[in-house]
Amino acid sequence: MKVSHIEHLGIAVKSLDTAIPYWEKMLGTPCYNIEEVAEQKVKTAFFKVGQTKIELLESTSPEGSIGKFIEKRGEGVHHVAFAVENLEDRLAECADAGIQLIDKAPRGGAEGLSIAFLHPKSTGGVLTELCEDKNK
Ligand code: ZN
Question: Is pTM, for the whole model, over 0.90?
Answer without folding.
Answer: yes
